[in-house]
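Q: Entry one of two.
A:
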Amino acid sequence: MPVNAVGGYAMPKLKENISLARFSNYKIGGPARFFFEPKNEDEVRWALNEARAKKLPVFILGGGTNILIDDRGVKGLVLRLDIRTLEANSTMITVGAGVPMADILKFSIKKSLSGLEWAGGLPGTVGGAVRGNAGCFGGEIKDSVVSVRSLDMRTAKLIERSAKQCAFGYRASVFKKKNGREIILDAMLHLKKGNGKKIAASIKEKIDYRKKNHPLNYPNIGSIFKNVPLSAVHKYGSAGYKTALSEKSLTFRGSTFSVKTDPSPVISAAKLISESGLRGVRYGGAMFSEKHPNFIVNVKSAKSSDIKKLIALAKVRVRRRFGIILVEEVQIL
């Protein structure tokens, strides 16, 4: 921790009234009453002490994806983790929560370490990926996690969990279930020795797919809703679960859905939204993307309330059309 004593280092200082829109992929969000970017565990502890002394609630901000920040801002302390540890010991990697996913992918190419190719083009930070068990193209971050270190925000106790103790699920983990009670500091990942050129090619393939199929030309925070497990759709009234699984196709209430692996069998939330007549529908400055309707994009100075209106509309329309209750993947702050 920097000190004013013999070393002459300046003490950390909380910034005040910092616009959060600049840290959001949506370019949406009001000011944080207090704001700090801790670079290590000691600075996280210092910030928590400051919050306790000022009786402030604490909110964690990662890479600004997968989170919708209210235009009214945040009255407490926002911590944007800047812990950038990135070290390899053979096939074991220790990575700080603030490391962008893009950086760890570059690192894996350089070190010829395979296992994260599925994350090509995935936005956000490692901390956010672990918290939400990020996944795509059949892979998930849990597949590589060995252990995770976190800090209890109330007691400042350091906690280290094995992958099993992290209770990873579909876009979920123990950290998400605790609803912000813990701050992820870093994670240890286990990868495999591979061929750097093949790893790079596989990552590029995923990046190219995203560029082609996702509306990256507009500010967005990724998929708004979780895909729907095939088993859940079956409970909502569809028939022929085993047939749908083997044929990778499901006809439900007059619409046909592809069954994909994510990594368990699911049907697309984007398809549900599209079949409910919402592709391209706009409210204020926000719009369901015509390219990928599970993305709500900021087309013209959208407000957080515009996004929330469309989220609510999708839930109503999909439930009315299919009887399915969509579940948000994004966090609303």
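Q: Entry two of two.
A:
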Amino acid sequence: MRFLIFGGAGYLGSHLVDLLDFTENEIVVFDNRSGNISTSFSSNVKFVFGDITNPASVKELDQFGKFDGVFHLAALKSVEQSFLRKDAYALVNETGTVNIAKYCKDKGIRNIVFSSSAAVYGALDSPTLISEDDLTKPINPYGLNKLNAENVLRELSTSSSINVMTLRLFNLVGAAKPEYNDLRGENVLPVIARKLMGGELFKVFGNSYPTTDGTCVRDYINVLDVAMAHVMAMNFLIHNKFTGSSHTLNVCSGTGFSILELITLVNKVNKNHLSWVFGNERLGDPASVIGDNSRAKETLGWIPKIKMETSITESLSLGGTFE
């Protein structure tokens, strides 16, 4: 099989490339290296430096001919930064997706797996786990970007013979290799890692949310489990030989951890304990987001396997810094 991975040099992309590279696949990675991940590829992987916001840059992929499937992972992903850089986020996450959709349509590519986000659900507080059928009402520009990108690809599947699998990812944690850690990321564990490295206080944003301990609750899922879901999603599209189909699945653990519970686990697995202080709530942060992964299990046969303690250990294992 021949696969093209937009964003394949990033945090998730690096893990996905490794999984695909274990088999007899031809892989092309298209990335602008903005993810700050120390990725090096095997000789089986061709790398193209490019930007999805530039159609001429994407057109450089014409040299590789046709692909059996495309993975679209390329995105800007900080909720906080999406408020400060709305135009940049819309350009990459929405216009970039339009450019990828046009490329796939022009090249007759049949299968696309898209990395979306649980941010599309917004501040949905449900007494049950959040399912794919629940209301999508983003409360931050990043979530809106992702929802608009989903709609672009859904319309593409309707108007063409292209099959689209949208995976709504919850909070990615862990790293199969220390060099794949997203050290500059703004997700909670990279921030905690940096605070531990510097011996600084970690700020917990808010303690008056309607949760058991007043802090935000999130569904964390290991990045390698997420990468495997992408592989299985592409196999599902290819082997079922759909024509113009669209599917949406949550990729999550189905279990929530509050920030204080997360800190307790960090201090359990790490010799250098994290010191923390409460701060003000952040704009655009919902109280609780826990996903229902039953549809992904049923559709793909996918099961998340890596425990939270392992994910935390991986996230804090930065070349022995915390040993």
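A: Comment on entry two: Residues 111 and 238 are 7 Å apart (CA to CA). The two ends are 41 Å apart (CA to CA).
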